Protein backbone atom coordinates (compact mmCIF):
# COMPACT_ATOMS: atom_id res chain seq x y z
CA UNK A 1 0.00 0.00 0.00
CA UNK A 2 2.15 2.84 -1.18
CA UNK A 3 1.31 6.04 0.64
CA UNK A 4 1.29 9.16 -1.49
CA UNK A 5 4.68 10.82 -1.28
CA UNK A 6 4.85 14.16 0.48
CA UNK A 7 8.03 15.44 -1.03
CA UNK A 8 9.46 14.35 -4.36
CA UNK A 9 12.40 15.10 -6.55
CA UNK A 10 11.58 14.38 -10.15
CA UNK A 11 14.57 13.97 -12.48
CA UNK A 12 16.31 16.94 -10.91
CA UNK A 13 19.68 18.24 -11.97
CA UNK A 14 21.79 21.07 -10.63
CA UNK A 15 24.57 22.30 -12.86
CA UNK A 16 27.28 24.60 -11.58
CA UNK A 17 28.77 26.57 -14.44
CA UNK A 18 32.37 25.98 -15.36
CA UNK A 19 34.58 28.86 -16.35
CA UNK A 20 37.74 29.71 -14.55
CA UNK A 21 39.85 32.54 -15.77
CA UNK A 22 43.26 31.00 -16.30
CA UNK A 23 42.35 27.34 -16.28
CA UNK A 24 38.94 26.65 -17.84
CA UNK A 25 36.82 24.14 -15.98
CA UNK A 26 33.89 22.23 -17.45
CA UNK A 27 30.44 22.69 -15.95
CA UNK A 28 29.79 20.42 -12.99
CA UNK A 29 26.60 18.39 -12.86
CA UNK A 30 26.50 18.23 -9.04
CA UNK A 31 23.13 16.49 -9.12
CA UNK A 32 22.25 14.69 -12.30
CA UNK A 33 18.84 13.20 -13.04
CA UNK A 34 17.90 12.26 -9.49
CA UNK A 35 14.40 11.09 -8.57
CA UNK A 36 13.38 10.43 -5.01
CA UNK A 37 10.18 10.40 -2.97
CA UNK A 38 9.54 10.51 0.76
CA UNK A 39 6.21 9.48 2.27
CA UNK A 40 4.81 10.30 5.72
CA UNK A 41 6.16 8.06 8.48
CA UNK A 42 9.16 7.01 6.48
CA UNK A 43 12.88 7.57 6.99
CA UNK A 44 15.00 7.69 3.89
CA UNK A 45 18.76 8.03 4.04
CA UNK A 46 20.77 9.61 1.25
CA UNK A 47 24.31 8.28 1.54
CA UNK A 48 27.38 9.52 -0.24
CA UNK A 49 30.75 11.09 0.30
CA UNK A 50 31.74 14.71 -0.12
CA UNK A 51 31.07 15.82 -3.66
CA UNK A 52 28.40 13.19 -4.25
CA UNK A 53 25.71 15.87 -4.53
CA UNK A 54 23.74 14.72 -1.50
CA UNK A 55 23.71 18.11 0.23
CA UNK A 56 22.89 19.94 -3.01
CA UNK A 57 19.94 17.58 -3.40
CA UNK A 58 18.93 18.39 0.20
CA UNK A 59 19.08 22.12 -0.48
CA UNK A 60 16.84 21.74 -3.52
CA UNK A 61 14.33 19.66 -1.56
CA UNK A 62 14.27 22.44 1.05
CA UNK A 63 13.65 25.05 -1.63
CA UNK A 64 16.96 26.76 -0.77
CA UNK A 65 18.32 26.07 -4.22
CA UNK A 66 16.53 25.64 -7.55
CA UNK A 67 17.08 22.70 -9.84
CA UNK A 68 18.27 23.54 -13.34
CA UNK A 69 16.34 20.58 -14.68
CA UNK A 70 13.45 18.63 -13.29
CA UNK A 71 11.03 19.54 -10.53
CA UNK A 72 10.64 19.35 -6.78
CA UNK A 73 7.07 18.47 -5.82
CA UNK A 74 5.48 19.04 -2.45
CA UNK A 75 2.07 17.40 -2.15
CA UNK A 76 2.18 16.84 -5.89
CA UNK A 77 2.65 20.54 -6.71
CA UNK A 78 5.84 22.09 -8.04
CA UNK A 79 7.40 24.21 -5.30
CA UNK A 80 8.85 26.63 -7.85
CA UNK A 81 5.43 27.79 -9.01
CA UNK A 82 3.80 28.27 -5.62
CA UNK A 83 2.27 31.56 -4.64
CA UNK A 84 2.59 33.36 -1.30
CA UNK A 85 0.38 31.31 0.98
CA UNK A 86 1.41 27.94 -0.39
CA UNK A 87 5.00 29.05 -0.25
CA UNK A 88 4.71 29.92 3.43
CA UNK A 89 3.02 26.62 4.05
CA UNK A 90 5.91 24.81 2.39
CA UNK A 91 8.43 26.79 4.44
CA UNK A 92 6.69 25.76 7.65
CA UNK A 93 6.01 22.16 6.64
CA UNK A 94 9.49 21.27 5.43
CA UNK A 95 12.12 21.85 8.10
CA UNK A 96 15.83 21.25 8.34
CA UNK A 97 18.27 20.08 11.02
CA UNK A 98 21.87 20.97 10.21
CA UNK A 99 25.08 19.24 11.14
CA UNK A 100 26.44 22.06 13.19
CA UNK A 101 23.74 23.78 15.16
CA UNK A 102 26.37 26.18 16.50
CA UNK A 103 26.72 27.94 13.17
CA UNK A 104 23.00 27.77 12.45
CA UNK A 105 21.93 29.37 15.73
CA UNK A 106 22.28 33.10 16.26
CA UNK A 107 25.09 33.33 18.84
CA UNK A 108 23.65 36.45 20.46
CA UNK A 109 20.11 35.23 20.74
CA UNK A 110 18.89 33.18 23.70
CA UNK A 111 17.55 29.69 23.08
CA UNK A 112 14.00 30.92 23.65
CA UNK A 113 14.66 33.78 21.24
CA UNK A 114 15.80 31.39 18.50
CA UNK A 115 12.79 29.15 19.00
CA UNK A 116 10.43 32.12 18.99
CA UNK A 117 11.27 33.10 15.41
CA UNK A 118 9.52 30.21 13.62
CA UNK A 119 6.63 30.39 16.07
CA UNK A 120 5.92 34.00 15.20
CA UNK A 121 6.73 33.84 11.50
CA UNK A 122 5.38 30.44 10.55
CA UNK A 123 2.55 30.01 13.02
CA UNK A 124 1.76 33.63 13.83
CA UNK A 125 1.66 33.04 17.58
CA UNK A 126 1.58 35.88 20.11
CA UNK A 127 4.06 36.39 22.89
CA UNK A 128 2.34 34.45 25.68
CA UNK A 129 1.43 31.57 23.42
CA UNK A 130 4.98 31.48 22.10
CA UNK A 131 6.42 31.27 25.61
CA UNK A 132 4.24 28.29 26.41
CA UNK A 133 5.08 26.57 23.19
CA UNK A 134 8.82 27.19 23.63
CA UNK A 135 8.72 25.51 27.03
CA UNK A 136 6.80 22.57 25.62
CA UNK A 137 9.30 22.22 22.77
CA UNK A 138 12.30 22.33 25.08
CA UNK A 139 10.64 19.78 27.32
CA UNK A 140 9.98 17.54 24.32
CA UNK A 141 13.60 17.50 23.19
CA UNK A 142 14.78 16.72 26.71
CA UNK A 143 15.96 20.15 27.87
CA UNK A 144 14.67 21.61 31.13
CA UNK A 145 12.98 24.88 30.09
CA UNK A 146 13.83 26.67 33.32
CA UNK A 147 17.53 25.95 32.82
CA UNK A 148 17.83 26.44 29.08
CA UNK A 149 15.34 29.10 28.04
CA UNK A 150 17.65 32.04 28.60
CA UNK A 151 20.97 30.47 27.72
CA UNK A 152 23.09 31.40 24.74
CA UNK A 153 24.23 28.78 22.20
CA UNK A 154 27.88 28.83 23.34
CA UNK A 155 26.83 27.81 26.85
CA UNK A 156 25.47 24.49 25.58
CA UNK A 157 27.21 21.23 24.75
CA UNK A 158 27.10 19.93 21.17
CA UNK A 159 24.35 17.47 22.00
CA UNK A 160 22.26 20.13 23.74
CA UNK A 161 22.65 22.51 20.80
CA UNK A 162 21.52 19.80 18.42
CA UNK A 163 18.45 19.31 20.63
CA UNK A 164 17.74 23.02 20.26
CA UNK A 165 18.19 22.64 16.50
CA UNK A 166 15.60 19.87 16.51
CA UNK A 167 13.22 21.89 18.70
CA UNK A 168 13.49 24.77 16.24
CA UNK A 169 12.69 22.48 13.33
CA UNK A 170 9.77 21.10 15.29
CA UNK A 171 8.42 24.54 16.20
CA UNK A 172 6.53 25.01 12.93
CA UNK A 173 4.68 21.67 13.20
CA UNK A 174 6.48 20.29 10.18
CA UNK A 175 5.54 17.27 8.10
CA UNK A 176 8.94 16.73 6.61
CA UNK A 177 12.32 16.94 8.33
CA UNK A 178 15.50 16.99 6.31
CA UNK A 179 18.50 16.31 8.50
CA UNK A 180 21.91 17.00 6.95
CA UNK A 181 24.53 15.04 8.90
CA UNK A 182 22.67 15.66 12.16
CA UNK A 183 25.02 13.65 14.38
CA UNK A 184 28.40 13.64 12.69
CA UNK A 185 29.68 16.52 14.82
CA UNK A 186 28.63 14.79 18.05
CA UNK A 187 30.44 12.45 20.40
CA UNK A 188 29.81 8.77 19.83
CA UNK A 189 27.96 8.28 23.11
CA UNK A 190 25.58 11.17 22.36
CA UNK A 191 24.72 10.30 18.75
CA UNK A 192 22.24 7.62 19.68
CA UNK A 193 20.32 9.99 21.96
CA UNK A 194 19.81 12.47 19.14
CA UNK A 195 18.91 9.78 16.59
CA UNK A 196 16.47 8.23 19.05
CA UNK A 197 14.87 11.61 19.65
CA UNK A 198 14.45 12.12 15.91
CA UNK A 199 13.03 8.61 15.50
CA UNK A 200 10.56 9.07 18.36
CA UNK A 201 9.41 12.42 17.01
CA UNK A 202 9.00 10.92 13.60
CA UNK A 203 6.77 8.18 14.97
CA UNK A 204 4.77 10.57 17.15
CA UNK A 205 4.02 12.96 14.33
CA UNK A 206 4.19 10.61 11.35
CA UNK A 207 6.91 12.79 9.87
CA UNK A 208 8.64 12.09 6.63
CA UNK A 209 12.38 12.14 7.37
CA UNK A 210 15.27 12.46 4.99
CA UNK A 211 18.72 11.86 6.47
CA UNK A 212 21.66 13.08 4.47
CA UNK A 213 24.71 11.29 5.76
CA UNK A 214 28.07 9.79 4.92
CA UNK A 215 27.79 7.44 7.89
CA UNK A 216 26.51 3.96 7.18
CA UNK A 217 26.21 3.47 10.93
CA UNK A 218 23.42 6.05 10.91
CA UNK A 219 21.77 4.20 8.04
CA UNK A 220 21.90 0.91 9.95
CA UNK A 221 20.38 2.57 12.98
CA UNK A 222 17.54 4.59 11.58
CA UNK A 223 16.75 4.28 7.89
CA UNK A 224 13.90 2.35 6.27
CA UNK A 225 15.17 3.00 2.79
CA UNK A 226 18.53 4.12 1.51
CA UNK A 227 19.65 5.93 -1.61
CA UNK A 228 23.35 5.81 -2.48
CA UNK A 229 24.70 8.77 -4.43
CA UNK A 230 27.97 8.92 -6.30
CA UNK A 231 29.08 11.87 -8.43
CA UNK A 232 25.63 13.38 -8.60
CA UNK A 233 23.76 10.24 -9.52
CA UNK A 234 21.88 7.60 -7.62
CA UNK A 235 23.82 4.39 -8.06
CA UNK A 236 21.76 2.20 -5.78
CA UNK A 237 18.57 2.37 -3.76
CA UNK A 238 16.43 -0.02 -1.82
CA UNK A 239 15.38 -1.17 1.64
CA UNK A 240 18.14 -0.24 4.09
CA UNK A 241 18.60 -3.78 5.43
CA UNK A 242 18.78 -5.14 1.90
CA UNK A 243 21.33 -2.63 0.64
CA UNK A 244 23.48 -3.03 3.75
CA UNK A 245 23.52 -6.81 3.63
CA UNK A 246 23.66 -7.32 -0.12
CA UNK A 247 24.96 -4.19 -1.85
CA UNK A 248 24.56 -4.43 -5.60
CA UNK A 249 26.73 -1.52 -6.74
CA UNK A 250 30.52 -1.55 -6.50
CA UNK A 251 30.56 1.90 -4.88
CA UNK A 252 28.19 0.78 -2.13
CA UNK A 253 30.48 -2.17 -1.50
CA UNK A 254 33.44 0.22 -1.23
CA UNK A 255 31.55 2.30 1.31
CA UNK A 256 30.66 -0.77 3.33
CA UNK A 257 34.23 -2.04 3.21
CA UNK A 258 35.39 1.29 4.62
CA UNK A 259 33.41 0.74 7.81
CA UNK A 260 35.78 -0.12 10.62
CA UNK A 261 36.20 -3.80 11.35
CA UNK A 262 37.48 -3.59 14.90
CA UNK A 263 37.62 -7.32 15.39
CA UNK A 264 39.14 -9.21 12.53
CA UNK A 265 38.33 -12.89 12.14
CA UNK A 266 41.95 -13.91 12.78
CA UNK A 267 42.28 -11.75 15.89
CA UNK A 268 42.64 -13.64 19.16
CA UNK A 269 39.54 -13.56 21.39
CA UNK B 1 61.82 -1.43 23.04
CA UNK B 2 60.07 1.44 24.73
CA UNK B 3 60.08 4.60 22.67
CA UNK B 4 57.66 6.86 24.50
CA UNK B 5 56.82 6.46 28.12
CA UNK B 6 54.33 8.74 29.79
CA UNK B 7 54.36 8.25 33.51
CA UNK B 8 51.58 9.56 35.73
CA UNK B 9 51.14 12.75 33.72
CA UNK B 10 48.90 15.52 35.02
CA UNK B 11 48.04 18.65 33.04
CA UNK B 12 46.39 21.65 34.65
CA UNK B 13 44.57 24.75 33.50
CA UNK B 14 45.26 27.21 36.31
CA UNK B 15 43.73 25.49 39.35
CA UNK B 16 41.97 22.66 37.52
CA UNK B 17 43.53 19.37 36.53
CA UNK B 18 42.33 18.39 33.08
CA UNK B 19 44.52 15.32 32.73
CA UNK B 20 45.29 13.22 35.77
CA UNK B 21 47.74 10.36 36.33
CA UNK B 22 47.91 9.32 32.72
CA UNK B 23 50.46 6.63 31.93
CA UNK B 24 51.06 5.28 28.44
CA UNK B 25 53.74 3.40 26.58
CA UNK B 26 54.48 3.27 22.89
CA UNK B 27 57.12 0.89 21.59
CA UNK B 28 58.96 1.15 18.30
CA UNK B 29 57.00 -0.41 15.48
CA UNK B 30 53.79 -0.29 17.47
CA UNK B 31 50.54 1.68 17.06
CA UNK B 32 48.88 2.54 20.34
CA UNK B 33 45.37 3.97 20.37
CA UNK B 34 44.16 6.67 22.72
CA UNK B 35 40.39 6.91 22.66
CA UNK B 36 38.15 9.46 24.28
CA UNK B 37 35.27 11.81 23.61
CA UNK B 38 35.44 15.60 23.73
CA UNK B 39 36.85 16.78 27.03
CA UNK B 40 38.52 13.47 27.83
CA UNK B 41 41.99 15.01 27.76
CA UNK B 42 43.30 12.88 24.91
CA UNK B 43 44.53 15.81 22.82
CA UNK B 44 46.01 17.57 25.86
CA UNK B 45 48.02 14.42 26.50
CA UNK B 46 49.44 14.69 22.98
CA UNK B 47 50.15 18.41 23.42
CA UNK B 48 52.02 17.59 26.62
CA UNK B 49 54.23 15.11 24.76
CA UNK B 50 55.11 17.79 22.23
CA UNK B 51 55.62 20.34 24.98
CA UNK B 52 53.23 22.64 23.16
CA UNK B 53 49.99 23.85 24.65
CA UNK B 54 47.35 25.90 22.87
CA UNK B 55 47.10 28.25 25.85
CA UNK B 56 49.78 29.66 28.18
CA UNK B 57 47.52 28.79 31.12
CA UNK B 58 47.99 25.09 30.45
CA UNK B 59 50.96 23.38 32.02
CA UNK B 60 52.24 19.96 33.02
CA UNK B 61 51.69 19.67 36.75
CA UNK B 62 53.20 16.29 37.48
CA UNK B 63 54.62 13.20 35.88
CA UNK B 64 57.30 12.40 33.36
CA UNK B 65 57.45 12.02 29.61
CA UNK B 66 60.40 10.01 28.42
CA UNK B 67 61.42 9.65 24.80
CA UNK B 68 64.05 6.98 24.35
CA UNK B 69 64.64 7.13 28.07
CA UNK B 70 65.26 10.91 28.14
CA UNK B 71 62.90 12.98 30.27
CA UNK B 72 61.50 15.71 28.03
CA UNK B 73 60.49 17.82 31.01
CA UNK B 74 64.11 18.45 31.94
CA UNK B 75 64.89 19.94 28.53
CA UNK B 76 65.24 23.59 27.66
CA UNK B 77 62.76 25.06 25.16
CA UNK B 78 65.57 25.09 22.62
CA UNK B 79 66.35 21.40 23.07
CA UNK B 80 62.63 20.64 22.89
CA UNK B 81 62.31 22.49 19.62
CA UNK B 82 65.07 20.35 18.17
CA UNK B 83 63.32 17.19 19.29
CA UNK B 84 59.95 18.24 17.95
CA UNK B 85 59.90 17.49 14.30
CA UNK B 86 63.22 15.69 14.38
CA UNK B 87 62.16 12.89 16.70
CA UNK B 88 58.42 13.45 17.03
CA UNK B 89 56.23 13.98 13.99
CA UNK B 90 52.68 15.28 14.33
CA UNK B 91 49.56 14.97 12.22
CA UNK B 92 46.29 16.68 13.04
CA UNK B 93 42.63 16.55 12.12
CA UNK B 94 42.47 19.52 9.79
CA UNK B 95 45.43 19.54 7.40
CA UNK B 96 44.43 22.87 5.85
CA UNK B 97 45.04 24.62 9.14
CA UNK B 98 48.68 23.54 9.07
CA UNK B 99 49.48 24.24 5.44
CA UNK B 100 50.37 27.67 4.08
CA UNK B 101 47.74 28.46 1.42
CA UNK B 102 50.21 30.60 -0.55
CA UNK B 103 53.04 28.13 -0.86
CA UNK B 104 53.30 25.05 -3.10
CA UNK B 105 53.09 21.94 -0.95
CA UNK B 106 56.43 20.55 -2.13
CA UNK B 107 58.15 23.68 -0.84
CA UNK B 108 56.37 23.27 2.50
CA UNK B 109 57.69 19.75 2.92
CA UNK B 110 61.16 20.99 1.97
CA UNK B 111 60.82 23.79 4.50
CA UNK B 112 60.35 21.23 7.25
CA UNK B 113 63.72 19.83 6.24
CA UNK B 114 65.46 23.22 6.11
CA UNK B 115 64.18 24.30 9.51
CA UNK B 116 65.85 21.28 10.99
CA UNK B 117 69.11 21.93 9.16
CA UNK B 118 68.83 19.79 6.08
CA UNK B 119 69.02 22.44 3.38
CA UNK B 120 71.01 20.55 0.76
CA UNK B 121 68.90 18.34 -1.43
CA UNK B 122 65.74 19.39 0.40
CA UNK B 123 63.66 19.60 -2.78
CA UNK B 124 64.65 16.12 -3.92
CA UNK B 125 64.04 14.72 -0.46
CA UNK B 126 60.60 16.37 -0.42
CA UNK B 127 59.74 14.52 -3.61
CA UNK B 128 60.88 11.25 -2.08
CA UNK B 129 58.60 11.91 0.91
CA UNK B 130 55.60 12.73 -1.28
CA UNK B 131 56.19 9.43 -3.06
CA UNK B 132 56.51 7.65 0.28
CA UNK B 133 52.98 8.71 1.26
CA UNK B 134 51.58 7.26 -1.99
CA UNK B 135 50.72 10.52 -3.71
CA UNK B 136 50.33 9.96 -7.43
CA UNK B 137 52.62 12.13 -9.59
CA UNK B 138 54.67 13.55 -6.67
CA UNK B 139 56.44 16.09 -8.89
CA UNK B 140 53.11 17.46 -10.12
CA UNK B 141 51.61 17.53 -6.62
CA UNK B 142 54.69 19.29 -5.22
CA UNK B 143 54.01 22.31 -7.43
CA UNK B 144 50.39 22.62 -6.40
CA UNK B 145 48.90 24.81 -3.72
CA UNK B 146 46.93 23.27 -0.84
CA UNK B 147 43.53 24.35 -2.22
CA UNK B 148 44.18 22.36 -5.40
CA UNK B 149 44.38 19.12 -3.44
CA UNK B 150 41.65 16.97 -1.94
CA UNK B 151 41.36 16.58 1.83
CA UNK B 152 42.95 13.16 1.71
CA UNK B 153 45.85 14.43 -0.44
CA UNK B 154 46.42 17.33 1.96
CA UNK B 155 46.58 14.92 4.86
CA UNK B 156 49.17 12.86 2.96
CA UNK B 157 51.23 16.00 2.40
CA UNK B 158 51.08 16.73 6.12
CA UNK B 159 52.16 13.19 6.90
CA UNK B 160 55.06 13.61 4.46
CA UNK B 161 56.10 16.81 6.24
CA UNK B 162 55.80 15.09 9.62
CA UNK B 163 58.12 12.33 8.38
CA UNK B 164 60.66 14.78 6.91
CA UNK B 165 63.25 14.34 9.64
CA UNK B 166 62.65 10.60 9.99
CA UNK B 167 61.12 10.81 13.44
CA UNK B 168 60.80 7.76 15.66
CA UNK B 169 57.41 8.73 17.00
CA UNK B 170 54.34 9.92 15.14
CA UNK B 171 51.49 11.56 17.05
CA UNK B 172 48.31 11.41 14.99
CA UNK B 173 45.44 13.36 16.57
CA UNK B 174 42.17 12.51 14.81
CA UNK B 175 44.02 12.28 11.48
CA UNK B 176 40.98 11.10 9.53
CA UNK B 177 38.01 12.63 11.33
CA UNK B 178 37.48 15.29 8.67
CA UNK B 179 37.79 12.84 5.80
CA UNK B 180 35.37 10.63 3.89
CA UNK B 181 35.11 7.02 4.99
CA UNK B 182 36.88 5.56 1.97
CA UNK B 183 39.64 8.18 2.21
CA UNK B 184 39.94 7.53 5.93
CA UNK B 185 40.66 3.87 5.29
CA UNK B 186 43.43 4.83 2.85
CA UNK B 187 45.14 7.21 5.30
CA UNK B 188 44.98 4.65 8.11
CA UNK B 189 46.41 1.99 5.79
CA UNK B 190 49.23 4.40 4.98
CA UNK B 191 49.98 5.06 8.67
CA UNK B 192 50.03 1.30 9.27
CA UNK B 193 52.44 0.73 6.40
CA UNK B 194 54.77 3.54 7.51
CA UNK B 195 54.75 2.19 11.03
CA UNK B 196 55.82 -1.25 9.79
CA UNK B 197 58.30 -0.14 7.15
CA UNK B 198 59.96 2.66 9.09
CA UNK B 199 59.59 1.05 12.50
CA UNK B 200 57.71 4.10 13.77
CA UNK B 201 55.94 4.21 17.07
CA UNK B 202 52.51 5.71 16.45
CA UNK B 203 50.12 7.19 18.99
CA UNK B 204 46.74 7.26 17.24
CA UNK B 205 44.28 9.52 18.99
CA UNK B 206 40.61 9.29 18.10
CA UNK B 207 37.07 9.59 19.38
CA UNK B 208 36.16 6.46 17.47
CA UNK B 209 36.89 3.25 19.34
CA UNK B 210 36.04 1.08 16.34
CA UNK B 211 38.58 2.82 14.09
CA UNK B 212 41.27 2.64 16.73
CA UNK B 213 40.57 -0.97 17.66
CA UNK B 214 41.02 -2.01 14.05
CA UNK B 215 44.39 -0.34 13.68
CA UNK B 216 46.13 -0.65 17.03
CA UNK B 217 47.77 -3.32 19.11
CA UNK B 218 47.16 -1.62 22.46
CA UNK B 219 44.36 0.80 23.30
CA UNK B 220 43.81 3.16 26.22
CA UNK B 221 40.38 4.66 26.86
CA UNK B 222 40.17 8.06 28.55
CA UNK B 223 37.24 9.59 30.33
CA UNK B 224 37.15 13.02 31.98
CA UNK B 225 40.93 13.32 32.14
CA UNK B 226 41.80 9.83 33.33
CA UNK B 227 42.53 6.51 31.71
CA UNK B 228 39.73 4.12 32.62
CA UNK B 229 40.80 1.02 30.73
CA UNK B 230 43.73 -0.34 28.74
CA UNK B 231 44.32 -3.58 26.92
CA UNK B 232 44.80 -5.29 23.57
CA UNK B 233 42.49 -3.69 21.03
CA UNK B 234 40.45 -6.76 20.13
CA UNK B 235 39.91 -7.74 23.76
CA UNK B 236 38.84 -4.22 24.67
CA UNK B 237 36.33 -4.17 21.88
CA UNK B 238 34.87 -7.65 22.29
CA UNK B 239 34.98 -7.86 26.09
CA UNK B 240 35.20 -4.34 27.52
CA UNK B 241 35.28 -4.29 31.31
CA UNK B 242 34.87 -0.67 32.34
CA UNK B 243 31.22 0.43 32.12
CA UNK B 244 32.28 3.47 30.10
CA UNK B 245 34.12 1.34 27.54
CA UNK B 246 31.14 -1.01 27.45
CA UNK B 247 28.88 1.96 26.75
CA UNK B 248 31.18 3.24 23.99
CA UNK B 249 31.23 -0.13 22.24
CA UNK B 250 27.48 -0.36 22.48
CA UNK B 251 26.93 3.15 21.11
CA UNK B 252 29.16 2.65 18.08
CA UNK B 253 26.50 2.62 15.38
CA UNK B 254 28.70 1.19 12.66
CA UNK B 255 29.41 -1.96 14.63
CA UNK B 256 26.80 -2.26 17.38
CA UNK B 257 25.19 -5.68 17.41
CA UNK B 258 21.78 -4.03 17.45
CA UNK B 259 22.11 -0.61 15.87
CA UNK B 260 18.35 -0.12 15.80
CA UNK B 261 18.32 -0.17 19.60
CA UNK B 262 20.10 3.20 19.41
CA UNK B 263 22.02 2.96 22.62
CA UNK B 264 23.59 6.08 24.08
CA UNK B 265 25.23 6.57 27.46
CA UNK B 266 22.83 8.55 29.66
CA UNK B 267 23.95 11.81 31.23
CA UNK B 268 26.88 13.88 30.05
CA UNK B 269 30.60 14.30 30.49
CA UNK B 270 31.23 16.35 33.65
CA UNK B 271 32.79 19.78 33.27
CA UNK B 272 36.34 20.14 34.62
CA UNK B 273 35.16 22.72 37.13
CA UNK B 274 32.63 20.32 38.56
CA UNK B 275 34.19 16.86 38.66
CA UNK B 276 32.35 14.21 40.64
CA UNK B 277 34.23 12.80 43.60
CA UNK B 278 35.71 9.35 43.28
CA UNK B 279 35.21 7.60 39.98
CA UNK B 280 34.35 10.27 37.44
CA UNK B 281 31.99 8.03 35.56
CA UNK B 282 30.07 7.12 38.71
CA UNK B 283 27.13 9.56 38.25
CA UNK B 284 26.34 7.95 34.86
CA UNK B 285 27.13 4.37 35.81
CA UNK B 286 24.38 1.81 36.43
CA UNK B 287 26.75 -0.28 38.56
CA UNK B 288 27.78 2.57 40.88
CA UNK B 289 27.85 1.75 44.59
CA UNK B 290 28.96 3.67 47.67
CA UNK B 291 32.56 2.53 47.14
CA UNK B 292 32.67 4.36 43.81
CA UNK B 293 32.86 7.67 45.67
CA UNK B 294 36.48 6.73 46.25
CA UNK B 295 38.55 7.01 43.10
CA UNK B 296 39.64 3.61 41.79
CA UNK B 297 43.21 3.42 40.50
CA UNK B 298 44.01 1.90 37.11
CA UNK B 299 44.58 -1.66 38.31
CA UNK B 300 46.16 -4.50 36.31
CA UNK B 301 43.81 -7.41 35.62
CA UNK B 302 45.97 -10.23 34.39
CA UNK B 303 49.05 -9.62 32.27
CA UNK B 304 47.77 -7.37 29.53
CA UNK B 305 44.70 -5.53 30.71
CA UNK B 306 43.93 -2.92 33.31
CA UNK B 307 40.89 -0.95 34.35
CA UNK B 308 39.91 1.66 36.87
CA UNK B 309 36.62 0.26 38.15
CA UNK B 310 35.71 -1.19 41.53
CA UNK B 311 33.08 -3.40 39.98
CA UNK B 312 34.88 -4.78 36.94
CA UNK B 313 35.85 -8.05 38.66
CA UNK B 314 32.15 -8.99 38.58
CA UNK B 315 32.40 -9.04 34.77
CA UNK B 316 28.92 -7.59 34.43
CA UNK B 317 27.72 -5.84 31.29
CA UNK B 318 26.71 -2.56 32.88
CA UNK B 319 24.17 -1.87 30.17
CA UNK B 320 22.55 -5.31 29.89
CA UNK B 321 19.18 -3.91 30.89
CA UNK B 322 19.44 -0.87 28.64
CA UNK B 323 16.71 -0.54 26.03
SSE diagram, text form:
The complex is a heterodimer of chains A (269) and B (323).
Chain A: E1 7-16, E2 28-38, E3 43-47, H1 54-61, E4 69-74, E5 77-78, H2 84-93, E6 94-97, H3 101-104, H4 111-123, H5 127-140, H6 145-148, H7 158-170, E7 176-180, H8 188-205, E8 208-213, H9 216-222, E9 225-230, E10 233-239, H10 240-245, H11 250-257
Parallel strand pairs in A: 3-8, 3-9, 6-7, 7-8
Antiparallel strand pairs in A: 1-2, 1-4, 4-5, 9-10
Helix pairs in contact in A: 4-5, 4-7, 5-7, 7-8
Chain B: E1 2-13, E2 16-27, E3 31-35, H1 42-50, E4 58-67, E5 70-71, H2 77-86, E6 88-91, H3 105-115, H4 122-132, H5 138-142, H6 151-162, E7 169-173, H7 181-198, E8 201-206, H8 209-215, E9 218-223, E10 226-232, H9 233-238, H10 243-251, E11 299-301, E12 305-307
Parallel strand pairs in B: 3-8, 3-9, 6-7, 7-8
Antiparallel strand pairs in B: 1-2, 1-4, 4-5, 9-10, 10-12, 11-12
Helix pairs in contact in B: 3-4, 3-6, 4-6
Helix count, DSSP H or I runs of 4 or more residues of chain A: 11
The Rg value of chain B, from CA coordinates, equals: 20 Å
What global shape of chain A is seen? globular
Order of helices and strands of chain A: EEEHEEHEHHHHHEHEHEEHH
Percentage beta strand of chain A: 15-25%
Element order, helices and strands of chain B? EEEHEEHEHHHHEHEHEEHHEE
Count up the helices of chain B. 10
User: N- to C-terminal separation of chain A?
Assistant: 47 Å
Describe the oligomeric state of these chains in a short phrase: heterodimer
- Whole-number average pLDDT of chain B? 90
Average pLDDT taken over every residue of chain A = 89
- The global form of chain B is globular
Walk across the major sheet of chain A and give the strand order: 6-7-8-3-9-10
Strand order of the largest sheet of chain B: 6-7-8-3-9-10-12-11
Reported for the largest beta sheet of chain B, the result is: 8 strands, mixed
* Helix content range of chain A: 25-40%
| Estimated share of beta-strand residues of chain B | 15-25%
Assign the structural class of chain B, choosing from mainly alpha, mainly beta, alpha/beta, alpha+beta, or little secondary structure.
Answer: alpha/beta
> Which runs of chain B of at least 5 residues are low in confidence (pLDDT < 50)?
none
The count of strands of chain A amounts to 10
Which percent range fits the helix content of chain B?
25-40%
Amino acid sequence: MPVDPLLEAHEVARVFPGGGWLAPRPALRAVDGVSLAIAPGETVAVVGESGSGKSTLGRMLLGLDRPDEGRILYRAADIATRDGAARRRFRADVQVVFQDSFTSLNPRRSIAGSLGVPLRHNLGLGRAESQQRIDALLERVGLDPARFRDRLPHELSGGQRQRVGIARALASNPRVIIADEPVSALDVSVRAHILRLLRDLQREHGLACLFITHDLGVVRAIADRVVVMYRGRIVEHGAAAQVMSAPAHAYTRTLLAALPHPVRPEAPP
Amino acid sequence: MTLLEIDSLSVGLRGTLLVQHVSLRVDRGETVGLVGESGSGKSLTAFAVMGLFPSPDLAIRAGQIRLDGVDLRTMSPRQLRAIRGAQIGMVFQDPSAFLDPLMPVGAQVAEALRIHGRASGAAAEALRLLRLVDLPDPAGIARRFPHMLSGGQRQRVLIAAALAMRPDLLLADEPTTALDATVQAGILDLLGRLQRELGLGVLLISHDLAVVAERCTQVAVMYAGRIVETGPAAALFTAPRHPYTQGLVRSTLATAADAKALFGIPGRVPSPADMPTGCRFQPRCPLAVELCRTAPALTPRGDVRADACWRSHDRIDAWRDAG
